[in-house]
# Entry
Amino acid sequence: MIRRLTLLIIVLAVVFGCRVWLTGSTEVLPRQPMETFPSQLGAWTMVENRTLPPSLLEVLRLDSYISRFYRDPSGEEVELFVAYYRSQRAGENMHSPQNCLPGSGWQPIMTDRIAADLGTGRTEIVNRYLVEKDGKRALVLYWYQAHGRLIANEYLGKIYLVWDAIHLHRRDGAIIRLNVLLGPGANQESATRTVLQLARAASQRLPDILPN
# Structure
């Protein structure tokens, strides 16, 4: 009985200690304001800068973001969305496109993960998502980014959230999403390569606005 009581006290102490660490984590601001993100990314030029409606911002509960369309010399347009959260809580996570897009009427056709060269010096793994709505198809690439890590797996992201809150006193993070509408007969792999070109160019400048 005494051993069980002692074990219970230890478990409660650990849980309480973790809770204190998590709720007491330091909020870290981005290095530079989001609006300073370049309008020119290599061969890609920004052609539209969107402002999200208040109703959507209330749902997303993000702290800062950019939502832009970039165009390359061939006329291809890709949307880049970056949402930054200064302070996440255990049990919560940034809104995944696999939840948000179906909620907006986009139906999933295919989802997988692919290897990507984003100029980080190592091969990164990112999520790929093919969706359809009203006869139109879109290809989406996305990943989570925090403290120098690029993470595709959402469950792994939650583990890192707890780990970093305890060891770094940080709970900030971001989600990066790129998507392109596919024309009739468009090749999925070709579209993937196009989106990855902008993803690589954008990744070189993300450290300017997202703290490592």
